[in-house]
Protein 1
Amino acid sequence: MTFEADLARLERIVRELEAPDLPLADALSRFEEGVQALRAATAALTEAEGRVVELVADADGALRLEVRP
């Protein structure tokens, strides 16, 4: 799944968990699914963070690209 898909799934799970008539077994199942989606989304963010390209000012004020692994 993509980060966006994981995030959308998390939003749906939260809405489902907020339903007052959701049986406990279903709530636990949704919670477990939410934890998995959260872990996947977090991993995607961590990977993206490692690939971020920053503009960094040199001592003379010039800009250069710096890739952060």
Protein 2
Amino acid sequence: MRFTRMRRCAGMVAVLLLAGCGSVDDQGGSGVERAGTWTRLPASPLSARHDASGVWVAGRFVIVGGWSTPMCPPTADCASSGPAWRDGAGFDPAAGTWTRTAQAPVPISGSNVVAVADRMYLQTPDLGREDSPVSFVSYDPERDVWSTHPIPPDTGGALVAAGDVVLSISGSAEGGPAADAVFDPRTNAWKELPGDPLAPSFDRAGVWVDGSLLLTAKDLVSNPGAETPTVVRLARLDGFTRWTALPDSTIVGSGPIAVGSHTVWPMLESADGGAIGNWGRSYDLGGIFDLPSGEWQSLPRPPRTSQVPAGNAVVGGRILVGGHLLDPVTRRWIKVPELPGQERASVTMIGSPEVLLVWGGGTTDEPSANLSTGYLLRPR
């Protein structure tokens, strides 16, 4: 496999298993601004842990659950000796104070969490454990009350905040037709969405942009990426009833995130198919799509590599890409300073309209240790 600039890409999706990958020029583009400085959070009431769930909701950061067991190394498949935590806490950045939350009804972990109508909605992962069932729950921070709801048709789907409802988008149709659905809090029930024009597909994801669902997916074919690139395809769902197929992209990445009217695939590498089944040229993994105009743009050259923990939080119309904040409208970067203290991973990272929060996680030292400290960054 050939790697551009000799930089190895980790965690590639199925389409890139045979692909070469590399980084864009990281010397920094023009118009790079600098963010402010990290401010240490006051002591948290939560114990040290990694992979806690968190979201910005009702004017505060809410962090729940997570694991106090040793953090799993990046290339290992680890099993915990016990269930995740159920306790949580909210942090009000205006007051600078923490407040404990009520105990969750089930063990909480993972990043499948969204905020809708001042409520936190969260789906717990399938860990294959009797003490950690797949659950779909919500938390009302104003009343400090948890509620349990019916699980979606596809328990492996990703949650998407869609106005005043919650969507569950299946990741793949490899096991059968995708079972996308919408949850209405008023009826406490799920309703399946109509079949999409991209089916059958894999590497499926959804974002909510300008009052519509934008579905991104790749064709479900034998040996994807073996001879030709499997590019991202798009379709738009209006009113949860009418699909419109959009022009295909020329990118091959994953993990789209909505930022205003733009959708960003926050991956800075490229792929060319490798020595076997080479595609003839490199294709970007990341890019920017403007739904109103239907135009695509490439990601601009980023500032130098950052040691900020991995995450793609959105802060006031800017998205964290490769450790720095990018405005997808102006394509200008805000360079984020290094996070103080030890290098950490599996953190809880949450963006708000004005502030970025990083909390907990584990150190990458050997042996690793969990952390209960956190920091705030307020970009200029």
Protein 3
Amino acid sequence: MPEVEIYGTDQCEDTQETREHLQQLGVPYRYINIEQDPNALEWVKRQNDGEQKTPTVKLPDLVLSVPSNAQLDTAMKAKRITRGD
């Protein structure tokens, strides 16, 4: 099971940018489309004070809301998350 989970929507440019960034880095992740999963949508809202913010990225013991690529890279480095090779 990947250590990174991305909660977002197919239409969200930020979500797609985050997914592409992780793919380019070779980091495995699980994508959860909150438009197709009501429980995931509720989880995202709980993490963001009732707001739907995408992407919301879940790492071990850390949740990031709409992180920049640099913020995500820093968090993954701190959590020792690397390529899936």
